[in-house]
Amino acid sequence: MSKNDDRLLFLPLGGSGEIGMNLNLYAHKGKWLMVDCEMSFAGDHFPGVDLVFPDPTFIEREKDQLLGLVVTHGHEDHIGAIPHIWRRFECPIYATPFTAELITDKLAEAGLLDEVALHIVEHDGAFGLGPFTITYLALAHSTAEGHGLVIKTSQGTVFHTGDWKLDPNPLIGPICPSDKLKALGDEGVLAMVGDSTNVFNPENAGSELAVRDSLIKVCEGRTGRIVLTTFASNVARLDTAGEVARATGRHVVLLGRSMQRITKAAKATGYLKNFPDVLDEEDASHIPRDKILILCTGCQGENRAALARIARNEHKHLTLAADDTVIFSSKIIPGNELVLGQLFNVLASNKINVITEKDAFVHVSGHPGQADLKDMYDWVRPQIAIPVHGEARHLLAHAALARGCGINHALVPANGDIIEINQSGAHKVDDAPVGRMILDGDQVIPADSPSIGDRRRASQQGFVTASIVLEEDGTLAADPQLAVLGLPAREPGIFYDQLMDACELAIDRMKPKQRLNDGNVEEGVRVSLRRLCRAQLGKNPGVAVLISRLEEPVY
Ligand SMILES: [Zn+2]
Ligand SMILES: [Zn+2]
């Protein structure tokens, strides 16, 4: 894109067609602006892998024209990829104080703190970046410092909402800024690029204050220990946990690394001012059970998180017993039902009360329901709606809702679509390469790397390794050696002999000349072993064949 190119382009590299992995780009007059840089959790499709990110190759190629990464808020699905892929595009980062504190932690852990120019933008701050003028507009969300971005260009204004909801009392951050949003609408907004996560909720998202009142009632009069689990990033909910403890005469214990990390960042940036003093885990074990409120991580049933560990009785100091209560002050994220169900069963079988959002009013979402979206469209009145931050079905429903609100142009983007936004609407003009990267061990690699295919196959189908030693003429110099992993042979000894026979037969059947070529031998043995495994066990394992020769073959 040249500097004389007056077009305003929008390009999502992640987050359009999926929830999480938000990486959005804007281009104008030859310069690029990145909004958010996220990660997502890997799930079963990537065995042994924790994190997935969008492939930044496109912007890596344009990095000389990339002016900065502007971060809307500090959720992992908006900042999580920074320490892992920042080196690919190396640009300055802009964020408000609490978000910047979380990013600083990540950069320090990755050893990047001295290299990244991290600019702290004040609340509702504005700054210019080349042809863009960016103003932060504070909106309620399920973490502190949720923001929309007002991005002004010579082509018009884009309102990039970030994650948001309207909350008459969010406890932290501003009350719903309807006046500011109406004023923005009065000035004229060309396009609104916005959050679609909760478009299927016909109502409002709901208020943090209402959850606080309800949680106090839910906790009053309980006799055992109370465990309250939520996303650590929900600073208002942490504040509420402190108030619940105070109202019910309990001491707070914090469990889980991210709980400690977020409370530290929140206090450092002026939040959680009234949070009660936290009791040490060991001291808590000596205090009557009805005087303790444990605030902990693990609300999605994560196996290694604090809640799962105390539920399995693996914590050094704190245990749960009959009549204790565990409150899941959180949404059950689709896909986590199974692992959470197992955790609920562990708790229930120990006669521990389990309360989720299905049993009592203990949670509200941080994303707009239909009522919030309608208010937002009424106030901002963009010419164009571009729904993002959702799966295809969310984006389509959001576009339909926007049209219902009188927005004439609503375009559903897909990752990699280069979209021109102008007075006549939003139109796809080109494609950018997209893909996914994964963090595997400490390596960031493409998600379709052969190593992942091999691992998936090994984890599902098992693995056989055969070591073949050949004479100079290509005949076997010794019995083949085999290692078998994860195959359901009823009589392993007999199966092993059959595998050996299969190797021998494969080599015997080859023409003498074929045996002199390692590739031929490898392929012949592999096919033969796989055929046997399919016939005997109905499995199609990965097969590795190692060939050694006593002498180099003479061709
Ligand atoms: Zn968020
Ligand atoms: Zn998000």
Quick recap of the structure?
The chain is built from 16 helices and 29 strands. With 555 residues, the chain is α/β, with parallel strands linked by helices.
Task: Produce the secondary structure layout.
Layout: E1 8-14, E2 16-17, E3 23-28, E4 31-35, E5 40-41, E6 51-54, H1 57-61, E7 66-70, H2 76-79, H3 82-89, E8 93-95, H4 97-109, E9 118-120, E10 126-129, E11 132-139, E12 146-153, E13 156-160, H5 178-187, E14 191-195, H6 208-219, E15 226-229, H7 235-247, E16 251-255, H8 257-268, H9 281-284, E17 292-296, H10 306-311, E18 325-328, H11 337-349, E19 353-355, H12 370-380, E20 384-388, E21 390-391, H13 392-404, E22 409-410, E23 417-422, E24 425-431, E25 436-440, E26 443-446, H14 450-461, E27 463-470, E28 481-485, H15 492-508, H16 518-537, E29 542-549
Parallel strand pairs: 2-21, 4-7, 7-8, 8-9, 13-14, 14-20, 15-17, 15-18, 16-17, 18-19, 20-22, 27-29
Antiparallel strand pairs: 1-3, 1-23, 3-4, 5-6, 6-25, 10-11, 11-12, 12-13, 23-24, 25-26, 27-28
How would you describe what is shown here?
The protein is built from 16 helices and 29 strands. It is globular and about 85 Å long. The longest helix has 20 residues, at 518-537. Strands 9-8-7-4-3-1-23-24 form an eight-stranded mixed sheet. Strands 10-11-12-13-14-20-22 form a seven-stranded mixed sheet. It has three domains: 8-203 and 365-446, Metallo-beta-lactamase, Chain A (4-Layer Sandwich), CATH 3.60.15.10; 208-355, Metallo-hydrolase/oxidoreductase (Rossmann fold, 3-Layer(aba) Sandwich); 462-549, Ubiquitin-like (UB roll), CATH 3.10.20.580. α5 (178-187) packs across α12 (370-380), α6 (208-219) runs parallel beside α7 and α15 (492-508) runs antiparallel to α16. It is 31% helix and 25% strand. The chain has 555 residues and is α/β, with parallel strands linked by helices. The two termini are 56 Å apart. The mean pLDDT is 95.
